[in-house]
Amino acid sequence: MADTLEFNEIYQEVKGSMNDGRLRLSRQGVIFKNSKTGKVDNIQASELAEGVWRRVALGHGLKLLTKNGHVYKYDGFRESEFDKLSDFFKAHYRLELAEKDLCVKGWNWGTVRFGGQLLSFDIGEQPVFEIPLSNVSQCTTGKNEVTLEFHQNDDAEVSLMEVRFYVPPTQEDGVDPVEAFAQNVLSKADVIQATGDAICIFRELQCLTPRGRYDIRIYPTFLHLHGKTFDYKIPYTTVLRLFLLPHKDQRQMFFVISLDPPIKQGQTRYHFLILLFSKDEDISLTLNMNEEEVEKRFEGRLTKNMSGSLYEMVSRVMKALVNRKITVPGNFQGHSGAQCITCSYKASSGLLYPLERGFIYVHKPPVHIRFDEISFVNFARGTTTTRSFDFEIETKQGTQYTFSSIEREEYGKLFDFVNAKKLNIKNRGLKEGMKQSYDEYADSDEDQHDAYLERMKEEGKIREENANDSSDGSGEETDESFNPGEEDDDVAEDFWKIGDGDSDRGEKKPAKKAKIVKDRKPRKKQVESKKGKDPNAPKRPMSAYMLWLNANREKIKSDHPGISITDLSKKAGELWKAMSKEKKEEWDRKAEDAKRDYEKAMKEYSVGNKSESSKMERSKKKKKKQEKQMKGKVEKKGAASKSSSSTKSSAKNMSESFKSKEFVSSDESSSAESKKEVVGLFGGGLCWVLFYLIPTGICSS
């Protein structure tokens, strides 16, 4: 028989909610790891008192009772797994796995039995339902009645908040069954009462989550936060982890307490308690216990009189009472030497700490992500600027966290950290690509030789020259400027020109000249200039330096662990410069061979495309010829229209010379105000027509 059994997708029933995880049974005991919180429940084999197999809503379930009264429930088993589990319990735990089904008759009259921390309501020998007494927040009594109130469950859509039991009176003298019932409940219920004196008190501590200043009273079993508005009582059993994190300014410290279940204030849930301390603040602390009690309870971890930094005293006391390790940042160091990275999560700016087994972000909202729940990470370009990037984390449950606005100098350090922790990187291989894009857009003020940057500039110049050579002599049309006033220019757009004239003198005021547009250099059509690169064209050969760099890049990385791409390029440039002439000749020969292969491939490529390019050239010449013919026709029509307009204007002047002096003087004022010269352009024949509008409505042309 196997020494261990493992089951995936098993659900643990805790306070009315089902938490999925992995269950492992071994000779030493039973271990369950919660997939969501990472919390581990470890039950020693020697502590097991009873095992029950029963049918539940999620298939079949296993209920384990320990000798000290604790109850553990695990659901999600298949019926076929009973025999395997039963044999394992007999062989390793020496327990019979009993089959006991729940009663489904629907009766509400039965017997209440208290067993350890469990209240069981039975009908006959079969249980109807069970209530873990740790879920009870309050117990009140009435006449023949007991009311149980429960803690609200945040993970469930609907929470059971209250149950009432009717207890009939008995004939026994001196024993009140209602009070006996209530005392049994309260002895095991999770009802926090601040009785007795506190071990110590820390006054006016700055708390970031929940925000405010609180007095922290340390009791033997719970922590009491007393503020001006709210009070919180936190049992030590709800503390998952403790973190002590240095601020980036090296003058402050964060002390973070992870809670499950969280503390509540209305509809707000606080999964983390974050305290902020100044490193310069000291305190002298005296515990409210005698020295023998301190030595007996804390076994040298605490003393009656202590002094030191405030954050050290708080963390030391919490570590001794909660009995959990304090997590601090590991070996990670950012670009500035700090153990954290400045970034933004959602709408707030904060600090991301890479730890030895996860990431933690403080402070609004706090986030803790363990490595074992990460599916992959991703490095993405910043959405607003090229001087920053985003760090994305996706968990196995599908939740995505995006930490944005991280300075690009932190990229190399963070990438190396993630790579060393063997996390899956979604865009692996992008490390050099990202640095390339940053180098292209950044303003470099460095005087040192950057071989990578020089190559990028050289390739850009070559691409520009090729684009200019390919566009010359292609016969493409250019945009023409509109220059009115020139004799042979064609009119390029419709317009209306309005000017005043004096009919009494027979002469015209010079019309306002249209603004002359200066000749501009012909521009290539934008569509034509942005030609896409042929993917079938042969790729340009690398230089001797680039061939050498590609062959030796990994060696340089191994010789200088953690080196950034910019530093690697500088180091490569120095090594290449110091290389002997004989070694360089070897790479020069390889570069010459690559160049010959490229030229040969280009010849084959150009022969294949020659026929296609000749066809395109013939079609362009034909199009140009047709446009030239159309332009000639338009010029002829324009000349004809000008001659006709000149004859009409001479006839008009002759008729005006025969007007009498009286006629001219009588119409002088009115004609000066109303006569308008209108020049119209009609798209069909491109002709000029002059209209004189007279108040009487008569029109002469």
UniProtKB/TrEMBL annotation:
Its main location: nucleus. Residues 538-606 bind DNA. It comes from the Eukaryota. Residues 510-524 have a biased composition (Basic residues). Residues 458-543, 602-674 are annotated as: Disordered. Gene3D superfamilies: 2.30.29.150, High mobility group box domain, Pleckstrin-homology domain (PH domain)/Phosphotyrosine-binding domain (PTB), Structure-specific recognition protein (SSRP1). The keyword Transferase does not apply. GO terms for biological process: DNA repair; DNA replication; regulation of chromatin organization. One of its GO terms (molecular function) is DNA binding. Residues 640-657 have a biased composition (Low complexity). This is FACT complex subunit SSRP1.
